[in-house]
Amino acid sequence: MSISSSHKPIFLALALMVILACNSLAPTTPQPAATLNALYTSAAETLSALSTQGAISLTMPPSPTGTLAIPTSSPIALQTFTVVPPLQPSTRCDAAAFVTDVTYPDGSSVGMGVSFTKIWRIKNVGTCSWTTSYALVYLNGEKFGAQNSVPMPGSVGPGQSIDIPVQLTAPNQSGHFKGYWRLRNASGVLFGVGNSGEESIYVDVNVSGYNVVGYDFLDKYCEAEWQNGSQTLPCPGTDGDNKGFVIVLNSPKLENGNTQSKGLVTHPQMVNNGLITGKYPAVTIQSGDRFQASINCLYKANDCNMVFKLQYQIGNGTVQTLGQWNEIYEGESYSVNVDLSALNGQKVKFILTVLANGSAHEDYALWIAPRVARVSAQPPTTTFTPSPSPTATGTGTATPTATATSTPTSTATATETPTATATP
Predict the structure, then answer these.
(1) Are the beta carbons of 209 and 170 closer than 8 angstroms?
(2) How would you classify the pairing of strands 135-141 and 175-184?
(3) Which pLDDT does position 1 carry in this prediction?
(4) What is the pLDDT, as a whole number, of residue 15?
(5) Can you tell me the distance from the alpha carbon of 223 to that of 216, in angstroms, rounded to the nearest whole number?
């Protein structure tokens, strides 16, 4: 039987259906070999894929290593504040505060072997009064040949200040020297200055060369022009002259009874608030020069009460005051030591002035060794200088009175300083 070409597709479809039907009758359990082959094939494909991925990961370029950049800023300066507690009044019985160096501020120059007076100004900031049973005592450092203790010059109440002088002598060798002192109360207990009361006051000087006299006001006293404010006075004058007078005394006695070799006496005019002035010729001042003298009332001049003044003039300029000191008769003498460094290089006319405090009766103003002291590399030489005029001998004509009474301690304190002078 022949099959036409038009029936071929139908025939092929029927044949396919028969084959499929026969296969559906076969068991459905997979053949082990076929299953294992499939698993092997799948595992091999997985390993191959993993191997390929590993190869890819190994051949990848390394990632760039990043560096963490931390900016460094400049340190920030934080302002700090110190809490300052409010000042509280001292509740200590004995408490002191340093005010100033009246003479020989720190670093002053002193000649070898020269005697000088150091004066400290101290304030009582405690609750107890200081009496003359209190003292300033040497603690340590350079002693400068001083006493171990110096009594308090007078009584000092709370809130008051006092000047404490100590007589010293510079060593006979050059160098920088420092000596420390403290206060001592009536019970013998030491106390210092400052908030803690443990700080010492001290003298601090440079010793080099020698102190020599740059100008001697006593030897040249008749080179000065002396006046009483309205008229010129003769030199030497006459002791007891009511117009005022200036004389030199040999071996005059001080208030304390001690005798000096020479002294310049300047007595103001015998009127209420009288005065006397002596203007000296110009002298050229050098750096480090100092005006030095000891001021006193003449022995037994019991009514003595006056003001000593040191003044100066440059050319025809205004008269300036370097210092002034009140002096009364109480048995003490006072050292004057004024730094002249601010006048370095100037031609200066010095003026010694004495003013009466009220009555001029017995105002015998005694200047001991008034001079311009100068530091020199050479020791002083002794030369004979004849007196320019006759000198008086003795203790003057001060007449003692029967009513001598105790008077307060004078305030030997400069009240004015040169305008160009700066002190430490």
Answers:
(1) no
(2) antiparallel
(3) 46
(4) 57
(5) 11
Phi, psi of 339 (to 5 degrees): -75, 125
Q: In sequence order, what are the residues at sequence separation of 6 or more whose Cβ sits closer than 8 angstroms to the Cβ of residue 142?
A: 171, 177, 178, 179, 203
Dig out the tokens for 158 from the structure. 């709370």
| Residue 156 tokens, joined | 């000092």
The Cα–Cα gap between 336 and 368 comes to: 10
pLDDT of residue 98: 97
356: amino acid identity, one letter: A
| Mean pLDDT in consecutive groups of 10 residues from the start of the chain, 424 residues | 50 55 48 49 50 44 49 51 51 93 91 88 96 96 95 95 94 91 96 94 90 93 96 96 97 91 96 97 92 94 96 96 94 88 94 96 96 82 46 42 35 39 36
Token output for 93: 């019985």
Eight-state DSSP code of residue 341 = G
Which three-class secondary structure string do you get for 243-309? CCEEEEEECCECCCCCECCEEEEEECCCCCCCEEEEECCCEECCCCCEEEEEEEECCCCCCCEEEEE
Question: At which residue do the structure tokens 């092997």 appear?
Answer: 40
Pairing of strands 161-169, 135-141: unpaired
- Exposure on the CB side of residue 229, measured as CA atoms within 13 A: 16
pLDDT, position 376: 80
The residue with tokens 């040191």 is 310
Beta-bridge mates of residue 193 = 96, 199
Tokens representing 319 are 């008269």
- Asked if 361 contacts 346 with a C-beta cutoff of 8 angstroms, the reply is no
- Report CA 251 to chain centroid distance, whole Å: 42
DSSP string covering 42-83, please?
A: HHHHHHHHHHHHHHHHHTSPPPPPP------PPPP-----PP
Query: What is the Cα–Cα distance from 364 to 373, expressed in whole angstroms?
Result: 25
If one counts every other C-beta atom within 10 angstroms of the C-beta of residue 270, the result is 18
- For residue 341, the model assigns a pLDDT of 85
Are 174 and 209 in contact by the 8 Å Cβ rule? The answer is yes
Tokens of 84: 């300052």
List CB contacts of 264: < 8 A, sequence separation 6 or more.
Answer: 217, 218, 221, 246, 247, 248, 352, 366, 367, 368, 370
Strand partners, 332: none
Q: What distance lies between CA 66 and its chain's CA centroid?
A: 61
What pLDDT is attached to residue 89?
Answer: 53
